[in-house]
Amino acid sequence: MSSYLFRRLLWFFPVLFGVSLVVFFFLHLIPGDPVLMMLGESARPAQVEELRHQLHLDEPLYVQLGLFFRDLFTGKMRSIFYHQPVFQVITPRLLATFELAVFSMVLAVIFSLPLGIISARRKDTGWDFSFRTFSLIGVSIPNFWLGPLLIMLFSLKLGWLPVSGRGSLSHLILPALTLGMAMSGFLLRISRASMLEVLNAPYLKSARAKGLSERLVIFKHALRNALIPVLTVLGLQFGALLSGAVITETIFAWPGIGRLLINAIFSRDFPLVQACVLVIAFSYLTVNLLVDILYALVDARIRFRGQK
Amino acid sequence: MKKPVFYLLIGILGIFLIMGIFAPWLAPYSPYQQNLCQGLAPPSKAHLLGQDKLGRDLLSLIIYSARVSLLVGLSVVVISALVGFLVGAFSGVMGGAVDQVIMRIIDLLLAFPGILLAIALTAILGPGLGNVIFALSLLGWTGYARLVRGQVLVEREKAYFESARAIGAGWLRIIFRHLAPNLLGPVLVQASFGIASAILAEASLSFLGLGTQKLPSYGALLNHSLNFLRTAPHLTIFPGLAVFVLVVSFNLLGDFLADYFRVEEKAKKGW
């Protein structure tokens, strides 16, 4: 177990470094002069030079790289638009995004797991067909369409929920439904397939043969093993939630990191764009690392593979 | 999946393809023809799906948008599959350090969740059809490369592979003559899902204002409709429905192809 975790952690840091390296080169991909692009053609030469110096673009590339990492670690990287260190701008937005992502995830799990189990237990019935149809719709419906449709129904027509903004729980429901829909569809599909596989396993036959009730067979024996693939998907889908948040937050004016990223793009605040991309990628990698650790704790096979 | 459903899917996708190719002949109006006096007009006999805020015919805009969606979807998939196939085959065949380096580069690209890298790239390179296709292909090839590499690792252990090597066949010949036909099924399945994802990604970028700005696109249409949810719901309903049907059809086609190739494989093995 510990050697597995050690190897997993050992791989985590080079990936973080690689991701930072890719993000560092963003500024160098800009066609033309990045400083002029940020400030506009009408900027005064003194302004241009000041920003060029602030971004270390007047240094050789290897020095720029070193200074980029120094600024990143010491929190000195500054937003051009907000005139503040980027992490000060990002932290409250990141919390708002996590609030939305976690609530979406919880909604998706609460909704799709039971439906997946029912779908597997009643395979090829009308219930199974309708849940699978729901899953297909969930996976395919674009969140930039679902969001406005939900606003039209629940906010404008019925007047039950607010159109946009952040505050109470009622503000959270529509964005979370929009963001979690694709995940629900995906989880339903995975939990159904995984449950179907487990339901035919020999150890379930022996569990039934020793006289356990069906409820115990499902909840004590089948579910634990069926949950393992679901857990992996949950980690991977968290990344989809983070990138999906960019659109959902734009629709619902949710003050998260996704909306901040889009605003930073349109105000040509490239240091803030770099920082947002880095923070989102880091969050995704960290959640995946945590899921892998959890996975190892749940699945004995991985623990033993680690010991070997 | 039942055959009638498959024919229905082919029919729907055929309609979108015809819409994309023959848009100038099929669209009742030019998508650029404005009529400000009739801005936000609901569906009528003259304009079956209504008009947008500039008075442009929504049906014509939807027909033209199919062009961008399919162009991006197909281009991204063709480029990704080609690059992915070559890189994956090269990686699998070379093995060792080369294989490790290529796999780590793929891991690195996959560390950016969803379309985040595409958002960042289009933000930096600027909006435009070419940049959108480039940004989406930059991530798209990784899935194909992994698939092909995995298959190469399996196939290179088989007797025919060794026999081909023994009679002096080069790696390129082995890859294209022997390996490529075996990979057709899995690559087609992945391509079908890939087109659906690329269409969604393009629409998402356009929705955020980072996609193709000069050409009509479903994402941009939906973005412009956000301010008129109460007064002109048709601007949200119809373009969204079009992109949804397109994506569902490609996803279902992927499911169908996956079933088909699984059955074929079983038949080959005599199951």
Low-confidence region ranges of chain A: none
Structural class of chain A: mainly alpha
Radius of gyration of chain A: 24 Å
Q: Assign the structural class of chain B, choosing from mainly alpha, mainly beta, alpha/beta, alpha+beta, or little secondary structure.
A: mainly alpha
Q: What ranges of chain B have pLDDT less than 50 throughout 5 or more consecutive residues?
A: none
Strand content of chain B: under 5%
Task: Give the overall silhouette of chain A.
Answer: flat
Main sheet of chain B, how many strands, which sense, barrel? none
Task: Write up what this structure looks like.
The complex is a heterodimer of chains A (308) and B (271). With 308 residues, chain A is mainly α. Chain A has 14 helices and no strands. Chain B contains 10 helices and no strands. In chain B, α1 (3-21) packs across α10 (234-268), α3 packs antiparallel against α4 and α3 packs antiparallel against α8 (171-207). Chain B has helices at residues 3-21, 23-26, 58-94, 96-110, 116-125, 129-155, 159-166, 171-207, 218-225, 234-268. The longest helix of chain B is centred in the N-terminal third of the chain and has 37 residues, at 58-94. The model of chain B has no long low-confidence stretch (mean pLDDT 88). The A-B interface holds A 14-15, 18-19, 22-23, 26, 29-31, 136-137, 139-142, 144-145, 148-149, 151-152, 156, 238-240, 242-244, 246-247, 250-251, 261-262, 265-266, 270, 273, 277, 280-281, 284-285 and B 104, 107-108, 111-117, 119-121, 123-126, 196, 200, 203-204, 207-210, 219, 222-223, 225-226, 229-230, 233, 236-237, 240-241, 243-244, 247-248, 251-252.
